[in-house]
Structures are given as C-alpha cells and as structure tokens.
C-alpha cells in the first residue's frame, strides 16, 4: 500500500493545481498583515484639536461663529493668560452664558484676568479639525484617554492569541478548509461591525473578535499550503510570507487614497468575503483526511490534483497507507508527552516569543518620527522582502537550522552594537539597526516553516497555532518593554533584544534538521526523525536511508 508522499509524487508535488491554491491562499497574507499593521493609520494623529467650553456650541450657533472663530475665543485667551497650556487637555473653567456678548464672551467672567485664567482638565467634548480621520478623533482617544489607543492594539493581539488556541484546535478536529472559510466569514463580518461601531466599547469587542478570526485565516491557510505540496516544495511556506510584507507595503497606499478610518477598516476587511469563493477551488487537506481515516476522500482529492497537473494516477492506487493509531483530538499534553516533542515545543515557543518581541520592538524603535508617514511605512515593508529572498536562496542548500540560528545571532549582535554606537552617526546606527531588523525578520519567517515541519499531521495545526500564540504574547509585551526600559536608558531595550536573540540562536541548534524530510504523520515519526540526530538534536553519522519514507 503506497504512502501519501508516494502518491503525491505521482500526482505532482507542485503542479498547476498547487500553484493555483498557493496563489489564492497567499492573498490571505495580504489581508492579515493589513489588519496587523492597521492601527498606524486607524489611530493616526488627528491634527489640531481643542477642548470645547460648556455652552460654547450653543453660543457659537447663536453668534454664527466658524470653528476658527470659536477657537480664537476658546484657546487664544487660554494661551495668552496661561502660556504653558495649549488648550488640548485643559479648558477655561467657565461656562458660556447664552446671553454673552458675541464680540467678548469673557466679559462676564468675574474671576478671569489677563494674567491668569482659571483652568480645569478636559474630560470630553473635544473639537477636531478632522473629526472622522481616525479612531483617535472618533472616540476622543487623546490626553487622559490616549492609553486607549494602545489598548486597541493589545485587544487585537489578544484576539490573535485566542484564535491560535481555539481555531487551531478546531482546524485539527473539524478540518482545515471548514475552519478557514468560517474564519474568513467571521473576519469580514467583525471587520464591518468595527467600522460601524457606535462607541469604543463595541469597537474593542469586535476588534478582538476580528483578531480571533483573522488568526484562523492566516494559520489555517498556511497549513493547507504546506500540506498539499511535496517535501521538496515546502519552501512555499516562506514565499507565502512575502505576501505578508506585500500587505504592509499596500496598506499605506490604501490609507492615502481613503480619507477616513472607517473606509480603511472596510478596505482591509471586505476582501475576506471574496475568500469564501475558495470553497469551490481549494480542497480539504488530504493529509488531514488520512489522519481522520477518510482515505477514499483523500484519494479522490489526489486524483483531482493529478488531473489538473496533467498527471495520471495508476489504478493500483486504490488505497493509501494511513496511521492505524486511534484518531484523537489534540491537546497540549500531546505536544510535551515524549522527550523530543517536548524539546521541540519549548524551543519553538521561545523562538516565536523572542522573534515577535524583537521584531515589533525594532519596528517601534525605528518608528515614524516625522517625515512622510506613507512613504516611511512603505519602505519599512520593503525592507522585509530581502529576508524571504535570502531564505529562498539558502534554505534548500544549507538546511533550516543554520540560517535560523545565524539570523538570530546576527540580529542580537546588531542590536548590541547599535546600542553603543555614537549618536553623532545616525546613518550608521540606522544601518546597523536595519541589519538587526533583517536578521530577526529572517528568523521570524523560518520559524513558520520549521514549526510546521516538526509536528505530525494529527497535531500540526494545533501545534503551530499554540506555539505561534507566544508570538502574540510577545507583541503585547513589546511596547511596554520598549518604552519602560527606554525611560531608564534609551538603548537598554536593544541590550535586552540582543540577549533574547542570541539565546534563541543557540537554542534552535538543538532542533533536528528537516531539509528534504517528509512531513511526519505521527508522534512516533517525530521521535524517529529526532533519533537520527542523536539524543534529540545532534546529527548522527550513519542513518538508514529508508527511515524517512
């Protein structure tokens, strides 16, 4: 009875069918990265704003003031009497008398003088020159409420975290394509509600839910791609991440053309409904079907793949060998029950956490500090493209482990060197920091591939989702780590990043090499794979060439 990989080789490991599925699912990466980075434009600084004095709206309407005239009466006296106040987070502690003079509304203020005007903190009723340009102006996320903007991104990352656990588990139990389609539907629907949210509470709730479903689309789509190609073609798992960078590059163009945050939110959410059309063109993973003892369905899909690839499956392929182990629903204990699975899981969890924390930390550190927001953001996405190209050129020649380890160590060394470079050479600090960004991006992209190759089919989606959830935890911690430590010493975060990266580079050397190895189908396959690298990691000199079949 032939194995799945033998039949797939006959049907075509990366023919027209797989290329079409690959291209279609790559679009998920564009949508996901646009959501991931959208807070930069959804929460864009709203321009000038000031705090409106109670009664000012009614008086302004009676007097026929323009916004500029109201500004002159509201903020100008404040700046003249209290030079340290800008009028953004404080207002005059007065209430306009509806019968006040339109020419001099402060004339009846008994405790006001030219040298001193009474002030009070502003809690609501801000006036924005661009009222609907971002969620900051829409929900008054300024002054004492500014932390809520950070909360909106933290909530999205919490959604990613929840989606990794719940939908990763569901995809292993109920099927890849079913969960992918349901996630696309949920992603699009929640995204529309976010755009139409009447208040910030509703915005946060559905942004969290959109994060849950978005993680399901990205992770499940990635697993489908890696499971329908041959072992020599799994580099597509790296290439698909180039579309993530492409989404980062496209986002500023969308934001430039669409003037409101609601429009931007809809533009990055509505494409998910188009992905529902994949129901007719993207099949269920035949590897997953085999683990659920649905060999006939798997063989039917393989015949479909062969037909589209211009191949012909021999009639003797009437059955495919499958695991005779009882099918069970995945759990965390399955990932740590055996020695090598436990080692792989713990190292991969650390790699995800460190990569995400360092990546987001470096992005925020090199963040936008003036200049052209749209151009700067486009360039920041373009910097990531060489990472995927370097991986494509090296990973099938030298394997996974060495580039994985070297990229982490390069990132760590670059961060350490940047911390001690003199401040009078900004171009040099930027160049070395960009080298660190390139290194950690390579590590970030390789961990996707290695993670999927080190878990058996029965646990693959759950394992990838669980380990990648540490990525979301790193994303939540990154801003707090960066800004708190930078308050002590500006370069201190870089020292922490360098230590985390170098540790990660050393740890991944303990993982087995997966270059040219068939995807494991069972936990025993993983342990068997690791046994060819000594005691869970060190490669032995002699091995049985048939052991990978």
Automatic annotation (TrEMBL):
Topology in membrane: Multi-pass membrane protein
Primary location group: membrane
Protein name: Solute carrier family 22 member 3
InterPro entries named among the record's database cross-references: MFS_dom, MFS_sugar_transport-like, MFS_trans_sf, Orgcat_transp/SVOP, Sugar_transporter_CS
BP terms from Gene Ontology: dopamine transport; histamine transport; monoatomic ion transport; norepinephrine transport; serotonin transport
Keyword flag Ubl conjugation: no
Catalysed reaction, written as an equation: spermidine(in) = spermidine(out); (R)-noradrenaline(out) = (R)-noradrenaline(in); dopamine(out) = dopamine(in); L-histidyl-L-proline diketopiperazine(in) = L-histidyl-L-proline diketopiperazine(out)
GO molecular function: monoamine transmembrane transporter activity; neurotransmitter transmembrane transporter activity; quaternary ammonium group transmembrane transporter activity
All residue ranges annotated as the Major facilitator superfamily (MFS) profile domain in the record: 110-516
The organism's taxonomic lineage, starting at the top: Eukaryota, Metazoa, Chordata, Craniata, Vertebrata
A GO CC term attached to the entry: basolateral plasma membrane
Lineage: superkingdom: Eukaryota
Transmembrane segments: 21-42, 154-171, 178-198, 204-225, 237-258, 264-282, 347-368, 374-395, 402-421, 427-450, 462-486, 492-511
Keywords: Cell membrane, Glycoprotein, Ion transport, Membrane, Mitochondrion, Nucleus, Transmembrane, Transmembrane helix, Transport
SUPFAM superfamilies the record matches: MFS general substrate transporter
Localization terms from the record: Apical cell membrane; Basolateral cell membrane; Mitochondrion membrane; Nucleus outer membrane
Pfam name, any one: Sugar_tr
Source organism of the structure: Rhinopomastus cyanomelas (Common scimitarbill)
Family recorded in the similarity comment: Belongs to the major facilitator (TC 2.A.1) superfamily. Organic cation transporter (TC 2.A.1.19) family.
